[in-house]
Specification:
The complex is a heterodimer of chains A (349) and B (133). With 349 residues, chain A is an alpha/beta fold. Chain A is 34% helix and 25% strand. In chain A, strand 4, helix 4 and strand 5 form a beta-alpha-beta unit. In chain A, helix 3 runs parallel beside helix 4 and helix 6 crosses helix 7. Chain B is mostly beta strands. Chain B has a domain of 83 residues: OB fold (Dihydrolipoamide Acetyltransferase, E2P) (Beta Barrel), CATH 2.40.50. In chain B, 8% of the residues lie in helices and 42% in strands. In chain B, a hairpin with a 6-residue loop joins strand 7 and strand 8. The radius of gyration of chain B is 16 Å and the shape is globular. Chain B starts with a helix and ends in a 5-residue tail after the last strand. Classes of the chains: A alpha/beta (349), B mainly beta (133). At the A-B interface, helix 3 and helix 4 of A face helix 2, strand 7 and strand 8 of B.
Amino acid sequence: MSVGIVSYGAYIPKFRIKVEDIARVWGDDADILSAGLMVYEKSVPDLDEDTATIAVEAARSAVSRHNIDAKRIGAVYTGSESHPYAVKPTSTIVAEAIEATPVLTAADFEFACKAGTAAMQACMGLVGSKMVDLGMAIGADVSQGAPGDALEYTAAAGGVSYIIGNKESEMIAVIEDTFSFTTDTPDFWRREGMPYPEHGGRFTGEPGYFKHVTGAAKGLMEKMGTKPSDYDYAVFHQPNGKFPSRVAKMLGFTKEQIKPGLVVPRLGNTYSGSCMMGIAATLDQAKPGDRIFATAFGSGAGGDAFSFRVTDKIDEVRDAAPKVEDLLKDPVYMDYAMYAKHKGKIRLA
Amino acid sequence: MSVARFWRKQINRYNIVGTHCKTCDTHYYPPRNVCPKCRRDGDIESYKFAGPGEVVTYTIIHTAAEGFEMQAPYALAIIELDEGPRFTSQVVCDPVEVSIGLRVKPVFRKLGESGDKGMIYYGTKYVPDNDRN
């Protein structure tokens, strides 16, 4: 049975901090950092925003973009590594806020930066088997980077929601296939109760990101018998600008193919929302018939690869909700002191 | 706020869900079980408001209550929904942006939390509707 994306919605907080403002505090060279990471600024949540509020805004955007009856949504899965509660689902908050309750299943997913795409795969199974009519998969994060840590330059906030269905007449993009590549690799983790994650520095690159992204991407293309030139666009998990650019080249994709979805230079790494945000930005400008290749990566570690074929329906719904570019426009910049306040790095006695 | 007290009105806070009296065509938010105009002749139904409204009046909070210190200064406004009801809400923006008559739209935000261990209260706040100002 064919499954595909029926609608999508994105949300990005309006605040940004520039890499140079973080570098000034820690005595780093902003030019070298920005050039190396290919990240120039990152999004920052408002004082009253968290993963749940971001997930709700993204979910509402997806519902309104295709005028979906939320009661048709039989599953809500939210992927994040910054769920506001350790025990109590973000997904029930989302389901209640979009008025999809009570006849549905809901759960929270966690797999570092690819929890959202894992949720997409779960929804594919549910709608493909007709267990539910529509499934909602969300990737949202208010990701954390310890003060002075390399992650602080990129850890951003944002979320994306995809509604997955099985009626071809409703799909804006058919999911042609998916393939995952997973191993137990300790490249990045956060222990229970700890406020900030730890990572293996350079170890996160080759045995983490590149092994799993190429493993999933090559696996999917071999399974489908496709090659990079069969695709109009490509999106790879974007912890910075350098990694997706490099992995695209390794796999044989061009700069032009990844350009529309490469949002990290102006957004930072939205973790569970990262690859999904790139897919959304690409859908924002894709034409009917275009094919999109995407591979998400999650530390720990795994890669989820997808092949999409955009349908005629995209032109009917694309403009009915804010595009990623709209959400990136007109940011409000803040200095490090305000950023520290917004991120809860300043605690009142 | 107790968990039960919040939960009972959660649906009204997540979305602007109030009531409407079919007899006199008056909308209420927060919801009323009985129409105060029509009394026993009233015919009350649940009503989901569209959301947009405008600022009737406002104040800027500089000395915030416990739990809201990090947000000061912030704007607290009486919002009039397009269907008529008025209620108090925070307008999330730089306080200098707020003015009487400002068109606003709803957003989903944290309303508060019971310390580090307690429940987080979510619901509707307002932001300037830049497309309509």
